[in-house]
Amino acid sequence: MSRRGHRAQIVVVGLFVVLQVLPVLAVALNAFAGEWAGTVLPEELTWRWAAQIFADPRFIEALRNSLLISFGAMTVSALVTIPAVLAGHCYLPSLDRWLGALVILPYAVPGIALALGLMRIYSGQYGVQLNGTPWVLIFGYVPLGASFYYLPIKNNLRAVPVQEIIEAGHLVGAGDLAIMRRVILPAVMRGVVVGLVMNFALAISEFVYANLLVGGFYPTLQIFMNVLRQGSGHLTSVVVTVYFVVVWILSTAVVAVMAKREA
Amino acid sequence: MDGTSRTPTLTLPQAGGGNGKVRLGVQSNKKTIAFLFAMPLLGIMALFEIAPLLQIAWNSLHDADGQMTWTNYAEILGSRFQRKSFETSIIISVGSALFGIAVGLPIANTLRTMPVRLQQTVLTYANIGSNFTGFPLAFAFIIMFGMSGSFTLLLVKAGIVDTLNIYSTGGLVLVYAYLQVQLGVLLLFPALGAITADIEEMATMVGASRLKFWWRIGLPILAPSLIGSFILLFANAMGTYATAYALVGLNANLVTLRIGELAAGDVYSDPQLADTLATLLILVLVVPVIVEQTLLRRRRK
């Protein structure tokens, strides 16, 4: 590769990274900006807005709700999805094909349509009242996040001769469950970790379900941002920045874990 | 991989005792247990993914009293306003999906030539960043390109624009373009694995230029992935609600915004129409997927 070609590559990828980071920086800057009108960069920086937000009980409540829902959804999804993916891949190929379609379905079907259906079903018409509670989100996010486990785990499993491993395990007297836990699960751990973070990021970023199904009954960060928008842009920026920081810390932890595993 | 067909190859005398029937019994027992492990996910998917879709489809075919009717569809298809909402959504979605592919493909291809560690870091962040939509994204764009946003000021100072109105269809197009490039890179990056070093080397050996290589070899190889990615990007834009809502409120005439308005709006609430609109939206999105899959299967045969 020529030197010029190489430089062009760095520029292209660099531009992509800048594009991703720029909006985040803009919001963060606004969160700490004093007066910022009519100039390209703020004239002074201040903790004022951050202090004001962290003293607001509504913010603390929204942050707590969001973390509870996100960790809850992540836990439930992981617990039900990982066994199902392994069961499908290792024992039930026909189920596996169905799972493949079911996890992709939410990519084609818009969130608002699903939310509408959930609204009709879980508002008590069928004797079940989940709307207005965090449970509809925790369970509702499971199908939305299933692909985050399915795709990377399947990718990892493709490199693993599962049937041979199971047979070899039988020869040394290991039961199927032990083989799954001791051999197969560690082999897909990378995929699982990626899935967990993606799942968390989805749950803490989701707005349509939260707004339509729960709204003010159990306000999340996303709902709180929308409530705040009528007020000062600086306060909203602080909330958005907190959301970024939470997601960023998690992603970085994952990148670090994956890098370590590789080393 | 088919588990059952492999089992008989294991012919050690102590394992399975050579009795095919017992072996089969053990196998189907294991399948039942495996199925039990899959049950919780299947149950949740049935209740929180399939049932809601069936419910809105059913609602779209019934009136408020539960009588079967086509009037919901007739009303929407007869309304110029609602038809226009589909038109606007489709135009923005097709345009932004094409843009996402046109810009995402070169970026993904360049990324492929980078060191693996860098690739993974960029992709991991981009993957998680792809959740960065809705209010935070719209808000970031308002800060950058709003009335007194930094970029608005820079652009005005440079004399490129006089004013910039981010709270408009133009603003929506800008934000959608951003979303689509981000997702486009993620979708196209794995597809590019189909263009191996051998293929590129061979093309260089027969003296093909870069342009000729992509036109004659690269793009045809990628065609199925490009179509698949386009459909997903199209669906992504068609289904975007939170981002559009945060940016323009209910002012733009997009299908998703109309659905939200009819579902939860104080003034225009009409559950039947909302469900019908949602069903039509799903049809618009699912039909291309089915057509694509059928074509793909035929191609494979």
Automatic annotation (TrEMBL), chain A:
The keyword Methyltransferase does not apply. It is a multi-pass membrane protein. The keyword Transport applies. Pfam families: BPD_transp_1. Signal peptide: none annotated. It is found in: Cell inner membrane; Cell membrane. The chain crosses the membrane at residues 12-33, 67-86, 98-122, 134-151, 191-218, 238-259. Residues 63-254 form the ABC transmembrane type-1 domain. Keywords: Cell inner membrane, Cell membrane, Membrane, Transmembrane, Transmembrane helix, Transport. Belongs to the binding-protein-dependent transport system permease family. This is ABC transporter permease subunit. The lineage of its organism: Bacteria, Pseudomonadati, Pseudomonadota, Alphaproteobacteria, Rhodospirillales.
From TrEMBL, chain B:
The keyword ATP-binding does not apply. The keyword rRNA-binding does not apply. Keywords: Cell membrane, Membrane, Transmembrane, Transmembrane helix, Transport. Residues 86-291 form the ABC transmembrane type-1 domain. It comes from the Bacteria. This is ABC transporter permease subunit. It is found in: Cell membrane. Belongs to the binding-protein-dependent transport system permease family. CysTW subfamily. Pfam families: BPD_transp_1.
